[in-house]
Amino acid sequence: MQEITVLYPPIEPYWSGYLPVSDLHALYVETAGNPAGIPVVFLHGGPGDGARPGARRYFDPDRYRIIVFDQRGCGRSTPLAELADNTTADLVADLERIRAFLGVEAWVLFGGSWGSTLALAYAQAHPDRALGLVLWGIFLGSAPESTWLYGGGAGALFPQAYEQFASLVPQAERGDLVGAYLRRLGDSRESVRRAASDALARWEMTVLRLPPMGPMAPFVEPTFIQGAFWPDPPAVSPSALLGMHYQAHGCFLSPGQLLAGVEAIRHIPTTILSGSEDLMCPPSSAWALHLAWPQATFYQVTAAGHTSGPLTMAERLIEATDELAAALAVRP
User: Fold this and answer.
1) Catalytic positions, please?
2) Where are the domains of the chain?
3) Order of strands across the sheet with 38-43?
4) The pTM is what?
5) If you average pLDDT over residues 264-286, what whole number do you get?
6) What percent of the chain lies above the pLDDT cut of 90?
7) 245 and 86 in contact (C-beta within 8 Å)?
């Protein structure tokens, strides 16, 4: 995999540990950069992907206190692939627990794909805790977005791959592939779970890796492909199971919730980025957010996909975090 050289150099956390957030869940949390810097929290995608070391590299380590964590049920958090007490509201509450635990008054929210969904949900619930937002690959948690990815929309572009994805499910169940896959991912038979997990991974990677692969951003190496946190990848990846869990429940959001909630955060400095060739989270979602929120800075990055394409996407993300740090440094 080609290295993206525009990012800040790799750094190690100066603290890491586990934060119990319920009787069941404990989150892996780490901090890096400047302990006295501007707090920024990195929100990984998925749901269920977990964060990787490259997540630290989008922020100037001299100016930012970089907070990275794995959401419930994924990465290094425990228990792995747990669906109980795992909703958007739970994740929003977890962010407040992390903020209070680390003694942060307010922070910058940085998130792409599902991370953008969670950033918007948190900021709208706690606007006084958000110093700014940097969002890319916008996903609003809506039914049309789910239909696009799993209900045949993107399948019209990749008919052979989509047919392979759908063929795991009998014809009678194909009206709801998300529900059908969720049932199989929770099946008592390991062979059924593994077949569903692998088929889902193949389909998502078909969509994820187009346009033709350029440098892949290090914060989105798919956990379900890389087995990043497990020497022996489990029969069902957290990315597959948690992804279908959230999709089957409408991401635990009411229809149109994140667009309607823009009014509460309209004043917060925000940058929205969208790859013009993003087939995982189509640019129409980013455009809808921009129309609802014209005060936010909006960039469409030409020829960029969801995770790949020209270095311009990484450059724009770096520019956004640098510019936000400069603006916050002179804030009254």
Assistant:
1) 113, 278, 306
2) 15-142+252-329, 145-215+226-250
3) 15-20, 26-33, 64-69, 38-43, 107-112, 130-136, 270-275, 297-301
4) 0.92
5) 94
6) 78
7) yes
